C-alpha cells in the first residue's frame, strides 16, 4: 500500500511562487509615487486616490468572486488573477497619463482580491493532511512576503537601474508569465460544478461573535490604515520633507513593515489568542506614537522603527483577531472572514484619501499628525473593548 506524502509537493511550491509573484505586483508602484508626482504633476490627494483605487479593487474582488473557485476550480480562478496581474503590469509599462495608472491599480486590486482567498485555500488543499497548519503559515508568508518584496524590488530598480517607471513592471510581467507556467503544472483540487452566479456577497457578522469581532475589526482597520499611509504617503514625506530622494529607502520602509507583519502572523499560534490580540494592539499604539515622533522630529530612523513596531503589531493583531473570531464561530466562517477583510481594506483606502484631502489644505506634515491622533484614539478604544471582552470571558 502506497503511503501518503508527508512533505510539500513541487506543485505546492509552484502555487506558493505564483501567490508571491501575484502579490509582488500590487506594491511595485509604492516607492515610485514621488516620481509619478514629478512626471505627471500630481498633488498628494491624487496619489492617495490612486492608492485607494487598489483597495477598492481588492474589496470588489473579495465580494464578487469569493466563491468563484468553488464553482469553476482553483486553477481557473488563479489563472484569471494572474492574467489581471499581467494586465496591470502592462498598463504601468505603457502609462503616460493618470488614467492608465488608475487602470493598473484597479486591475492589481482585482487580482489580489481574487487570489488571496483562493490561493490560501489551494495551498492548504495541496498540502498533506499533517501539514495543513504549516501550509496556512506558508500562504501568509507568500502573501505578505510578496507585498514586501514588490516594494523593495521596484525601489532598488528605480534607484539603481534605467527606466525607473517601467523596468520593475517589465520584470514583474516576466515573473507573472513564469507563475502562469508554474500554475499549469499543479493539479486541480476542486471538481468544477459550473453553477457559479456572479453576485456581491453580503457582509455578515453573527450575533455570537460580535463582542470579539468589533474590537478585532477596529484594530485591523487601524493597522491597515497605518500600512496605507506608510505605503502611499511616507515615500512623498521622505522626498519632500526629509529630502531623502533615494527610492530604495521608500521600498525598504514598506519591506520592513510587511516583513514584520509576516513574522507577527507566523508567531501567533505560539501565544494565547486573546493575549496576542491585546499585545498587537499595544504595539500598534506604540508604533503610531513612534511614527508621530518621527514626523515631528523629521527623523527617518524613527519612521523605520515605526514600520517595524507597527508591522509586528499588525501581524499579531490580524492573525490573532481572525483566530479568535473563528474560534467563536460555528458556521459562516467564510462570510465572516470576507466581512473582516472588506472592513480592513476600507481602512486601507479611506483614511489615506482623508490624509490626501487634509494635506492639500494644511500640508503633508499636519495631515499626518492628525491621522496619527485619530488612529491612536481608535486603537485605545479597541484596547478597552478587548480588555472588557477578556474580563467578561473570565467571569463566565
Structure, explained:
The chain has helices spanning 10-27, 33-40, 44-65, 68-72, 74-93, 98-126, 132-160, 167-184, 210-232, 234-240, 247-267, 273-297, 300-328, 333-362, 364-394. The longest helix has 31 residues, at 364-394. With 396 residues, the protein is mostly helical. It is globular.
Poorly predicted parts: none
**What structural class is derived from the secondary structure elements?**
mainly alpha
The coarse silhouette is: globular
> How many DSSP E strands?
0
Instruction: Kindly report the average pLDDT value.
Output: 85
Tell me the fraction of residues in β-strands, as a range: under 5%
User: Helicity, in percent?
Assistant: over 70%
Q: What profile does the largest beta sheet have? A: none
Order of helices and strands: HHHHHHHHHHHHHHH
Distance from N terminus to C terminus (CA atoms, Å) equals 50 Å
Summed up, the helix count is: 15
CA gyration radius, whole angstroms: 20 Å
Any key phrases for this structure?
396 residues, single chain, globular, mainly alpha, 15 helices, 0% strand
Topology:
Layout: H1 10-27, H2 33-40, H3 44-65, H4 68-72, H5 74-93, H6 98-126, H7 132-160, H8 167-184, H9 210-232, H10 234-240, H11 247-267, H12 273-297, H13 300-328, H14 333-362, H15 364-394
Helix pairs in contact: 1-5, 1-6, 1-7, 1-8, 3-6, 3-14, 5-6, 5-8, 6-7, 7-11, 9-12, 9-13, 9-14, 9-15, 11-13, 12-13, 12-15, 14-15
Amino acid at each position: 500500500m502506497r503511503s501518503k506524502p508527508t512533505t510539500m509537493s513541487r506543485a505546492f511550491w509552484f502555487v506558493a511562487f505564483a501567490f508571491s509573484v501575484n502579490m509582488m505586483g500590487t506594491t511595485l508602484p509604492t516607492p515610485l509615487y514621488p516620481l509619478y508626482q514629478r512626471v505627471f504633476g500630481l498633488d498628494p490627494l491624487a496619489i492617495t486616490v490612486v492608492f485607494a483605487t487598489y483597495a477598492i479593487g481588492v474589496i470588489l474582488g473579495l465580494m464578487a468572486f469569493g466563491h468563484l473557485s468553488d464553482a469553476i476550480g482553483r486553477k481557473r480562478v488563479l489563472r484569471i488573477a494572474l492574467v489581471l496581474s499581467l494586465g496591470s503590469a502592462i498598463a504601468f509599462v505603457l502609462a503616460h497619463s493618470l488614467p492608465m495608472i488608475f487602470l493598473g491599480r484597479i486591475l492589481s486590486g482585482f487580482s489580489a482580491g481574487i487570489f488571496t482567498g483562493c490561493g490560501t485555500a489551494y495551498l492548504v488543499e495541496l498540502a498533506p493532511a499533517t501539514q495543513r497548519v504549516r501550509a496556512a503559515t506558508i500562504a501568509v508568508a507568500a502573501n505578505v512576503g510578496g507585498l514586501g518584496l514588490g516594494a523593495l524590488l521596484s525601489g532598488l530598480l528605480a534607484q539603481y537601474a534605467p527606466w525607473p517607471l517601467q523596468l520593475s513592471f517589465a520584470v514583474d510581467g516576466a515573473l507573472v508569465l513564469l507563475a502562469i507556467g508554474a500554475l499549469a503544472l499543479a493539479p486541480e483540487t476542486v471538481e468544477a460544478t459550473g453553477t457559479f452566479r456572479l453576485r456581491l456577497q453580503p457582509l455578515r457578522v453573527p450575533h455570537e461573535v460580535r463582542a470579539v469581532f468589533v474590537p478585532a475589526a477596529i484594530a485591523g482597520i487601524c493597522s491597515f490604515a497605518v500600512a496605507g499611509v506608510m505605503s502611499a504617503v511616507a515615500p512623498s514625506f521622505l522626498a519632500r520633507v526629509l529630502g531623502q530622494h533615494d527610492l530604495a529607502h521608500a521600498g525598504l520602509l514598506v519591506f520592513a513593515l510587511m516583513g514584520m507583519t509576516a513574522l507577527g502572523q507566523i508567531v501567533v499560534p505560539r501565544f494565547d489568542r486573546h493575549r496576542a490580540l491585546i499585545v498587537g494592539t499595544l504595539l500598534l499604539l506604540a508604533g503610531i506614537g513612534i511614527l508621530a515622533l518621527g514626523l515631528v522630529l523629521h527623523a527617518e530612523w524613527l519612521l523605520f522603527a515605526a514600520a517595524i513596531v507597527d508591522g509586528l503589531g499588525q501581524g499579531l493583531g490580524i492573525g490573532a483577531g481572525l483566530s479568535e473570531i473563528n474560534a467563536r464561530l460555528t458556521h459562516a466562517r467564510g462570510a465572516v472572514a470576507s466581512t473582516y477583510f472588506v472592513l480592513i481594506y476600507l481602512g486601507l483606502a479611506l483614511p489615506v484619501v482623508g490624509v490626501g484631502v487634509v494635506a492639500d489644505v494644511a500640508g503633508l506634515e499636519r495631515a499626518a499628525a492628525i491621522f496619527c491622533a485619530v488612529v491612536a484614539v481608535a486603537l485605545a478604544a479597541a484596547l478597552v473593548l478587548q480588555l472588557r471582552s477578556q474580563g467578561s470571558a473570565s467571569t463566565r
